[in-house]
Amino acid sequence: MKQDKIFYVKQKHQGVNNFAIEQDSPNGKENGDMVFRHNLRTRSEGFYDVTLKVRESVQESGIKDGICVVFCPHTTAAMTINENADPDVVSDLLFALNKTFPKMPEFRHAEGNTTAHLKASCIGSSVMVVVENGNLVLGTWQGIYFCEFDGPRNRSFIVKVLPG
Prior knowledge:
The chain is an alpha+beta fold. The chain has one domain: Sandwich (Jelly Rolls). The chain is 21% helix and 41% strand. It has helices at 51-61, 88-100, 114-123, and strands at residues 5-9, 19-23, 28-30, 33-42, 46-49, 66-71, 77-83, 126-132, 135-136, 142-148, 153-163. The strands form two sheets. Strands 1, 2, 3, 4, 6, 8, 9 and 11 form an eight-stranded antiparallel beta sheet that branches. The longest helix is centred in the middle third of the chain and has 13 residues, at 88-100.
């Protein structure tokens, strides 16, 4: 029987949130590539740094050189790469997105979360990172973020590591 692991990430600052990630075992291996699904519970709208979990997935895959794709299968959440050294950057991003996409009474979507759909569409559903010598090739200040625009929610993201 498979046991899920839960990892808690503690961060302070508006826009960057505390959250738990459950890691499923790799759920697929085809032609040498590996697929990992990670579940997380978001507490509110914000940016959740998932870089560590993506790094661990790459290392667990055993793939030394290739590409890592991180995909968000939700229409009101997104993935992005941005600065992880200064938490004010993601706070500013969230502030700017909220200013750019204010709630408007003219929106017709019945759930009332049109702004979350707009933000997710602009940020995008996936990021791709080069893998070299078994490590993610990220810039000094870069981190990978799961962007929640409609929380709190139970969410997931998928990491696929392809050799090449």
